[in-house]
């Protein structure tokens, strides 16, 4: 009976095909199917036309089966996300019995304890959402810095010195005294793997050398006269885990107003200025990509060359920790762009990409208190709406050696 249980949707309409079951893989049909009662004489003849007809019929049935398997069953697995949504993590309460994860032992040897309010705040962030602008690192962030990013005063000093020596010995970067805070960004991103940090520093240096204007700021008047500069929206509050949340509104990008090269410069200004914030260095980013209003004029800019350059800058040069990508209001841009982007992403990042059928689904991943009203949240006025213009002004001082942190 287990092999007769349906694994795809059961339709009410009898004219629709019957649902797939595990038995289809074993015998090619349902176990409970009735035997065939009408057999034509043609079924017993072995002539070439009848055999060819039977072969084509079986081939057609096989193709129908695999199409249904792919479209009805495999696509349904996309809803089984690896990362639990925000609502699930908030169900833990004080005095709940929990397993304590410990990398030193197998799962069956983990200890069980009663959760306390202090432990919940440390593990899942804060009970209250934090503002984007901060001048200190909360206790749970300091713990993440030590345990997850492997940074202590001793390792920080040791690995910083090692990275500096590697850069001095390299022909491309020798003679450049990088800002300490700038190098720490790369060490935190690599969890203090100096080899990986060195690779990223060289990449961003080579990017500047190959495309001299790629890390330049935009003219200030752009933010007063061009609607495309409103594509990037920084939210004034963080996720409970401390992540910085940014919304990309691609429908506002007008390629006739600013070029693709200028758009990518604007994106790099956002990345590099946000990463001057230690909270963002440690906790990472979450992005919401809103494709409402995007059309063919934006699609024409999504050439393989442009997309790969954006990928290279974002994921092979910028020392950002990417915690989630949420796609809403899908348009004709999404499928072709995703088809090109997907092979470039690691499996870990692919598992952090979420396609939402409606805006309300964002509430499964973000608390209502941090989202704008138009995205189902409570924020009516965004005090950080002018942040990108201010960041662009700060970016004028961004040189080869980097910039110090904001605090």
UniProtKB/TrEMBL annotation:
- Name the UniProt record assigns to this protein: Alpha-tocopherol transfer protein
What is the native source organism of this protein?
Trichonephila clavata (Joro spider)
GO cellular component terms, alphabetically, are:
membrane
Task: Give the source's domain of life in one word.
Answer: Eukaryota
This entry's Gene Ontology molecular function terms read: phosphatidylinositol bisphosphate binding
- Transmembrane feature ranges: none
Instruction: List, alphabetically, the InterPro entries matched.
Output: CRAL-TRIO_dom, CRAL-TRIO_dom_sf, CRAL/TRIO_N_dom_sf, DUF5641
Boundaries of every CRAL-TRIO domain copy: 222-383
Q: Name one Pfam family in it.
A: CRAL_TRIO
């Amino acid at each position: 009976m287990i092999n007769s249980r349906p694994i795809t949707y059961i339709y009410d309409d009898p004219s629709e095909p019957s649902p797939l079951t595990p038995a289809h893989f074993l015998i090619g049909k349902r176990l409970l199917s009735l035997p065939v009662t009408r057999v034509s004489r043609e079924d017993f003849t072995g002539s070439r036309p009848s055999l060819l007809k039977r072969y084509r019929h079986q081939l057609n049935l096989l193709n129908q089966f695999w199409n249904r398997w792919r479209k009805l069953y495999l696509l349904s697995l996309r809803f089984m996300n690896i990362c639990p949504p925000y609502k699930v993590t908030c169900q833990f309460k004080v005095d709940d019995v929990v397993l304590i994860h410990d990398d030193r032992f197998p799962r069956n040897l983990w200890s069980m304890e009663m959760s306390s309010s202090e432990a919940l705040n440390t593990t899942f962030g804060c009970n209250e959402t934090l503002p984007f602008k901060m001048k200190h690192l909360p206790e749970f962030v300091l713990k993440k810095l030590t345990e997850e990013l492997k940074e202590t005063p001793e390792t920080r000093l040791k690995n910083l010195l090692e990275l500096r020596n590697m850069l001095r010995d390299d022909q491309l970067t020798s003679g450049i005294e990088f800002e300490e805070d700038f190098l720490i960004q790369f060490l935190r991103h690599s969890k203090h793997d100096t080899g990986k940090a060195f690779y990223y520093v060289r990449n961003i240096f080579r990017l500047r050398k190959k495309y001299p204007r790629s890390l330049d700021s935009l003219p200030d008047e752009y933010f007063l006269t061009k609607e495309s500069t409103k594509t990037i929206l920084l939210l004034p509050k963080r996720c409970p885990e401390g992540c910085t949340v940014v919304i990309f509104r691609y429908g506002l990008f007008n390629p006739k107003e600013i070029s693709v090269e200028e758009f990518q410069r604007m994106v790099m200004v956002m990345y590099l200025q946000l990463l001057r914030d230690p909270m963002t260095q440690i906790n990472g980013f979450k992005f919401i990509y809103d494709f409402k209003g995007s059309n063919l004029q934006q699609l024409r800019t999504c050439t393989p060359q442009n997309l790969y350059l954006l990928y290279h800058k974002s994921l092979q040069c910028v020392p950002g920790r990417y915690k989630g990508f949420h796609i809403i209001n899908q348009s004709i841009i999404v499928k072709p762009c995703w088809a090109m982007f997907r092979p470039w992403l690691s499996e870990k990042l692919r598992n952090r990409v979420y396609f939402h059928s409606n805006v309300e689904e964002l509430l499964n991943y973000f608390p209502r208190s941090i989202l704008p009203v138009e995205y189902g949240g409570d924020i009516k006025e965004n005090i950080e709406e002018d942040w990108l213009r201010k960041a662009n002004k700060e970016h004028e001082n961004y040189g080869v050696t980097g910039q110090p942190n904001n605090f």
